[in-house]
Structures are given as structure tokens and as C-alpha cells.
């Protein structure tokens, strides 16, 4: 064992102090045992998280791609603010071990920079953590001192993306899953190279199937091909734009509607959480409807919103009904469940 945690180097598991997160210790014990695999869990995006076995050599290959792209080395300081129970947290530890960097560890919290005074070179956060951090002037200034941040686990909203334009920190959206051992593609969210397209890391390449869903070729992993349910616009073999989940597509009168695309365009009109989903319709087959996390609005407020939505949506995309739910249901990983109660 050889790892730097919070400024100190440890070469024996028994040397780890009691203030280290037990989840970090548990992963290190698993990493340094004689087995070739570690146990991971899927994010639970489409149901209860499932147990999955991850090859250590695949994790090393994945960590190497990230370390190379972000120039992570012995001089780097990384921040672990995600649970090592899931792949994002595990991979921050593996990147640290592989690079010889110093890993600052804190228990996962919605405001991870609250007690962080160190300058950080590289961090991984979920959108909710970034939003909470930017809402407070003190933690916002600390975020601005981080050199590079990858943001994953859920979609980055247009509002959050706009807030990140004002900061010097280089921010990247991630594309990947537990099965691909963390991200295999990145998207620049801010700065001069801001883009709507994801680009492949290393020798990863892309194609699509007959549904228009992404196929990922991963020569650095034992499983070298993954077929996804993500509908994309393929730019070329190493770049794609994400359109939405195949499971969520609405077929309205023969027109395919992508809820995630609609949500991105109307996000500025709503301060509450919301989602677009399908409802059966005798004429269209399916129609788009809007579900807002709120107590019911009066009819005038609903009509005012609809009139604003018509300014940026096609007739088929405009929600045919608006529903209200006091609390939206979430998956284990915090993603909204797109079902009408």
C-alpha cells in the first residue's frame, strides 16, 4: 500500500487514522486484498442499484486515461467528496494511488467546500453539490480556486451551466456508467472551448445502432463494446451530442420528442423542479405533458407559462397538460423518476 491522504503518506492500512471516512478505509482494504475484482454498485438510474464486479485492471486503465488528460501527477491535490460505495468515489481513490497525488477526503455533503482551505487541482462533484457551493459567496470563491472539476451523476441544467461561465475553473460534464468503469467521454461546459458535444478519452470510439442509440467501443477495458439506451447525434467516431434516453422518447402523432431536450429549453421559465413525460392520447398515441414540483397553480398562471413555452417549442413539444406534485420521486442516485402520480 502507498497512498497520500490529507497531506500524509501511508504505507500500511493499520497506519490510517480514525478520522478517515470508514468507506474510504473499506475500499482501500478491498483494493489491496488478493482478489482481482472489487464490488461496485450501479447508480440506480432505472431502479434499485445492482451489485457489479469491477476488474482492478480495468479501473487502473480507466484511471490512467483521466490522469493523462487532466495531467494528474505526484504534485496534484485531489478532492474526494463522493461516496466510495459508487464508481465515482472509487475512481478518485484509484487515480490518487496511480498518480501519487495527495487526496483530500471529506464525508459526502451537499456543500463539500465548506471546510476546505486547500487549493485543489482536480475534483469530481454531482450537480447538486456544485449548485449548493455556488449559492454561497465563500464556497463559491473556493470553487473558483479549483483548477478542474468533472460534474456527473445527473444532467447539468442550463441555469447551472450559465453560472459556470463566470468562473475560471475548467468544468467538464461526464459521460459514462459503472459498467464502463467511470467516464469514457467528457464535454467542456465553460470557457472558450465550451461545446454541446462529448469527446472520447484515449482510444474510445463511438457508433450507433438502428435505434440511433450510442455504441461505445472501449479497447482499454476487458469488455470492449457497450450498447446503450442513449439516443445521440453522432458528430464523428469520437464526438457525439446526447439527445436523451430511448426509454423516455415520446411518439406524438409520429413525431419523436426528446423530453430532456425540451426540459433544457424551458428550464429558464421554471424555478421549481419539473420533468416532461408522455401521456396516452387517443388521437396522437402519446402527448407531452409537464409535471411541476409544486402545489397547484391557478389557471391564469398555467396559461401564462404555456404562452411562454410556445415561444421556444414546436406545437408537438408544447405540453398538452400541466400536473403538479408536492414532491417528485427520486431514484437512489437522486435522479427524478418520470412518472405521474
From TrEMBL:
PANTHER family named among the record's database cross-references: ACYL-COA SYNTHETASE, MEDIUM-CHAIN ACYL-COA LIGASE ACSF2, MITOCHONDRIAL
Keyword Ligase among UniProt keywords: yes
Keyword annotations of the record: Ligase
GO BP field: fatty acid metabolic process
Sample GO molecular function, one term: o-succinylbenzoate-CoA ligase activity
Known EC number: 6.2.1.26
Protein name: O-succinylbenzoic acid--CoA ligase
Domain AMP-dependent synthetase/ligase per the UniProt entry, residue ranges: 39-194
Amino acid at each position: 500500500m502507498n497512498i497520500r491522504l490529507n497531506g500524509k503518506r501511508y504505507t500500511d492500512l493499520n497506519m490510517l487514522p480514525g478520522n478517515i471516512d470508514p468507506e474510504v478505509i473499506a475500499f482501500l482494504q478491498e483494493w489491496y486484498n488478493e482478489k482481482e475484482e472489487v464490488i461496485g454498485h450501479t447508480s440506480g438510474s432505472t431502479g434499485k442499484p445492482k451489485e457489479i464486479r469491477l476488474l482492478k485492471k480495468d479501473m487502473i486503465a480507466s484511471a490512467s486515461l483521466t490522469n493523462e488528460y487532466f495531467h494528474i501527477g505526484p504534485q496534484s491535490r485531489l478532492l474526494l467528496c463522493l461516496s466510495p460505495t459508487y464508481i465515482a468515489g472509487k475512481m478518485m481513490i484509484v487515480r490518487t494511488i496511480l498518480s501519487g497525488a495527495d487526496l483530500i477526503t471529506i464525508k459526502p455533503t451537499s456543500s463539500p467546500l465548506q471546510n476546505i482551505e486547500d487549493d485543489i487541482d482536480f475534483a469530481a462533484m454531482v450537480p447538486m453539490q456544485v449548485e449548493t457551493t455556488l449559492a454561497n459567496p465563500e464556497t463559491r470563491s473556493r470553487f473558483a480556486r479549483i483548477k478542474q472539476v468533472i460534474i456527473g451523476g445527473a444532467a447539468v441544467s442550463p441555469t447551472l451551466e450559465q453560472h459556470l461561465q463566470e468562473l475560471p475553473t475548467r468544468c467538464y460534464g461526464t459521460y459514462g456508467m459503472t459498467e464502463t468503469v467511470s467516464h469514457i467521454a467528457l464535454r467542456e461546459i465553460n470557457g472558450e472551448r465550451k461545446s454541446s458535444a462529448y469527446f472520447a478519452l484515449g482510444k474510445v470510439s463511438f457508433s450507433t445502432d438502428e435505434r440511433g442509440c450510442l455504441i461505445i467501443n472501449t479497447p482499454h477495458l476487458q469488455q470492449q463494446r457497450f450498447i446503450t439506451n442513449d439516443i445521440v447525434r453522432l458528430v464523428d467516431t469520437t464526438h457525439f451530442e446526447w439527445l436523451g434516453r430511448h426509454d423516455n422518447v415520446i411518439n406524438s402523432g409520429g413525431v419523436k420528442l426528446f423530453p430532456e431536450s425540451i426540459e433544457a429549453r424551458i428550464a429558464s421559465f421554471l424555478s421549481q423542479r419539473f420533468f416532461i413525460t408522455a401521456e396516452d392520447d387517443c388521437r396522437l398515441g402519446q402527448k407531452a405533458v409537464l409535471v411541476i414540483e409544486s402545489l397547484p397553480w391557478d389557471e391564469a398562471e398555467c396559461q401564462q407559462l404555456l404562452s411562454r413555452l410556445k415561444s421556444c417549442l414546436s406545437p408537438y413539444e408544447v405540453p398538452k397538460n400541466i400536473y403538479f406534485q408536492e414532491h417528485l420521486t427520486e431514484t437512489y442516485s437522486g435522479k427524478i423518476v418520470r412518472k405521474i402520480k
